[in-house]
Design goal:
Elements: H1 3-9, H2 11-15, H3 21-40, H4 47-54, H5 58-64, H6 68-90, H7 97-114, H8 116-128, H9 130-150, H10 159-178, H11 184-196, H12 201-208
Helix pairs in contact: 3-4, 3-6, 3-8, 6-8, 6-9, 7-8, 7-9, 7-10, 7-11, 8-9, 8-10, 9-10, 10-11, 11-12
């Protein structure tokens, strides 16, 4: 996809289409950063590469962002916030922690892979930006603690448990984005994680493989 087509279709640019020129340029840079992060990864991404993808001068980049870290964080937090908002809205009436964890895990993977560029940008930024990883993990921690209070999760919910669960989800995300697994990766990871938390094998399998209605970014 050429950068010109990307600019026309990029989600940040679409959201900023009614803003003034400065806002539209900033959004174009953010869409370019998504493409560069997805293609090159965080370490290899550069200001020069992002500016070139957006077809603007380096000087224009620095009018909007301090450095690569700032634009990567802005983009990744924007993606994470959109995913979180859609999950929160979809789970308003779900109280049972087993159901919430299953739904959120599988839908997170579906949303993050519905646009591979966004998914790769989120995946790569999560490892490079501790604050982003903590934000993503915070939602998971809340539901794991809910399950402990409800008595449906039998093991202690400590930092290690949360990191183990998060790592399983990120492994499933990588597998889906890289094409080594399909949508079943979400159900497999969810079933294993629920069993790790003490949910019975029968219930873990039933909940993890239930058909889901689609969500979109």
């Amino acid at each position: 996809m050429t950068s010109r087509v990307m600019r026309a279709r990029g989600a940040f640019a679409a959201a900023a289409r009614n803003q003034r020129k400065a806002g539209r340029t900033r959004a174009r840079l953010m869409d370019a950063a998504v493409q560069v992060l997805a293609r090159d990864g965080f370490e290899a991404a550069s200001v020069n590469g992002i500016a070139a993808e957006a077809e603007v001068a380096n000087g224009t980049f620095y009018l909007h962002f301090r450095d690569k870290e700032e634009i990567a964080g802005t983009v990744a937090f924007g993606i994470a916030a959109d995913v979180a908002a859609r999950l929160d809205a979809a789970m308003t009436d779900i109280d049972d922690a087993v159901e919430r964890v299953s739904f959120a895990t599988r839908q997170f993977l579906n949303l993050a892979t519905s646009d591979p560029a966004w998914g790769w940008a989120l995946f790569r930024a999560a490892w490079a930006l501790p604050a982003l990883r903590e934000q993503v993990v915070a939602y998971l921690r809340a539901d794991l603690l809910r399950g402990r209070r409800q008595g449906v999760f039998k093991i202690e919910i400590d930092a290690f448990t949360v990191e183990m669960f998060a790592s399983m989800v990120m492994t499933a995300l990588f597998a889906r984005l890289s094409g080594t697994a399909g949508e079943e990766a979400g159900s497999k990871a969810t079933e294993l994680a629920l069993r790790m938390l003490g949910v019975s094998p029968a219930r873990a399998r039933r909940v993890a493989w239930r058909r889901l209605a689609g969500l979109s970014l």
